[in-house]
Amino acid sequence: MKIAVLPGDGIGPEIMTQAIRVLDVLRAEGLDMEFVEAPLGGAGYDAYGHPYPEFTQKICREADAVLLGAVGGPQYDTLDRPLRPERGLLAIRKDLGLFANLRPAVLFPELANASTLKPEVVAGLDIMIVRELTGDVYFGQPRGMRVNENGEREGFNTMVYTEAEVRRIAHVAFGIAMKRQKKLCSVDKANVLETTEFWKEIVIDVAKEYPEVELSHMYVDNAAMQLIRNPKQFDVMVTGNIFGDILSDEASMLTGSIGMLASASLNESKKGLYEPSHGSAPDIAGKNLANPLATILSAAMMMRYTFNNEAAAVRIENAVKKVLAAGYRTGDIFEPGMTRVSCSEMGDQVVAAM
Ligand code: NAI
Ligand code: MG
Known about the structure:
Layout: E1 2-8, H1 12-28, E2 34-37, H2 42-48, H3 54-62, E3 65-70, H4 85-95, E4 100-106, H5 119-122, E5 126-132, E6 144-147, E7 153-156, H6 163-179, E8 183-188, H7 194-207, E9 214-219, H8 220-229, E10 236-239, H9 241-253, E11 262-266, E12 272-276, H10 293-305, H11 310-325, E13 328-329, E14 339-340, H12 343-353
Parallel strand pairs: 1-2, 1-3, 3-12, 5-10, 8-9, 8-10, 13-14
Antiparallel strand pairs: 4-5, 4-11, 6-7, 11-12
Helix pairs in contact: 1-10, 1-12, 6-7, 8-9, 10-11, 11-12
């Protein structure tokens, strides 16, 4: 298993160091893993003058999976847009054809107070949102701004999905549902938008290949309400790019803790890019304060979705649960009565729990 390691900027190198230590436990036990490090984002610009340099591109293309920290920082804000760190993220997603974005929202029972919702509403929450990442109104043509026949200025975008695009994301979602509760909710706005009516039709057709999965459909506005009212009714949700952008951010905040949120983006060959949902946190960078758990949990997702190693994934996740149950907390999830630890001490605890 060849893993491209892209620490990135800000807290990226600190959280990545801890994730690699956790993976090294598995490697020491005989799991065949090779790590190849490369710069992305601001680090790529500093080393090679580009946020996704050719050097990094080559390593990522040859790897089975990519583990990414975070990119960006105030020192890069004055660069031309094409050279900014965030462009490195878009470039790598596009280069590797990552069309399926998996965003789990998991509330560890020990962190029930971090949520803004009542503990009983979110306790035990474990949702997976599958968002299509390369189509929809974000990429549809035509798009732009123009003057219409009445002489008025107007802006326009095009919502479009091809059948193949819907089929492949539906297969990913059903595949994930098969590994979980066998419950899938497809989110659309089929009452108003033809594109999403078509989406629904294709999802229903793909469902025939997964008779064990209980499929339901929900309009996106209702889904947004239900996520707040009774989020535990959901297991896996699948939706298009724009609805998924909004719903995945909404769902992730049910847990209240940005330092805990992992993510995966997959392509057709199951190659994946795994990264925490948060950014490079320049305000705490270099201070050994960051929470490395989102990156460690992203490494667990890598074991599950690219390497099909469920046992290794569960082992990492259980180690994290054990450390939380023992009361260890970085600053972002700290509560009185708990043991405050640094980024590297959190890594120590997870390694010990492994
Ligand atoms: P951010 O997620 O970096 O930080 C938001 C707040 O959450 C900060 O107060 C930060 O200290 C805290 N935080 C984030 N991750 C944490 C962790 N692991 N442990 C403890 N606290 C944590 O978002 P922000 O401030 O909007 O962006 C900072 C930079 O990151 C910008 O340059 C932005 O463009 C970039 N960014 C990069 C992303 C990526 O690499 N995927 C995603 C989002 C932002
Ligand atoms: Mg978003």
